[in-house]
């Protein structure tokens, strides 16, 4: 794998299957699904095989990649919205998925031709849920409304989202749930709710204003203090024990960590022994996870942001471990901390004032420079499905597998802290 600041494109024969995800929330800010964003290959470089088009083969590659990685890893059992082209639909490639696990999202290029209508009828009869992407009310989509349970509307280009209320009401009257996508701000989210939208998707859920800035609470302040002690060579185990004792829930979390199978320390009931068993380096890593987990109890949106931070940290770590130059542990720290300003509702500079981080980590987070900046840009691009930027920054075909592993890892670690 290679990171670079130069526009270097991998050879045209290289085939990448990239899969990311974006959460979908309901009107009570509960995450109800993920849209899976994927790209099967850089270009349609495949030759025709019989009557099968390049688009169909690319779609086949992407859908089977989702299957091989496993929806469970990417969604933790939550329903997945899977993009479906007309070729996917007519070829019934979606049948590799359990109907209860997916929503088939027909892309905006699909119109209500007789062949498409017949295919939709078959899919619904087989138990699949259909959604229409980028619905704009054009007449050619009318035949598909009889089969769609969900309609997605891009609200970003609408100056006053409330003007969409009549269209939303008409769709609701037909029993169709309407989803507002590309919701960028709190103002847009409020307007979409007023217009009658029931589901929401967009960057508003990963922006700092979503998690209203609060003062750092007692537990978070204690975690900051313990992390500082762990990085202080002269700090004694007694000082660490006293810091844990000052917050009982942290002591309980420490014992849960040590009693997990990964440490083989079942039955440990002494804080000093637990500290020595885990070791300061590993404990420092767990404290970071505790820090982000402490924010997740605020709301379902906050919990999702915590998950994103853990996934990003692990993704940056494993990408580095696969061959990129650099320290995987430092890359984990950079990835995790890159969301801490959002999670704590504080400017990044203030977050870093409380944490003992190296200048390289600080430069990556504040300036976007230094040896860790490339992997952070890669994580940003991957999560945003900016595949052209991903191509520029990395030459690895296993990114989707690494991302799926990061999701599984984050789910497991967060469960140990919050259970």
TrEMBL record:
Span of domain EAL: 1-222
InterPro entries cross-referenced by the UniProt entry: dGMP_Pdiesterase_EAL/HD-GYP, EAL_dom, EAL_sf, HDOD, RNase_Y/CdgJ
Domain (HDOD): residue spans on this chain: 216-403
Pfam families: EAL, HDOD
Highest taxon of the lineage: Bacteria
PANTHER family: CYCLIC DI-GMP PHOSPHODIESTERASE CDGJ, PTHR33525
Name of protein: HDOD domain-containing protein
Naturally occurring in which organism (per UniProt): Gemmatimonas phototrophica
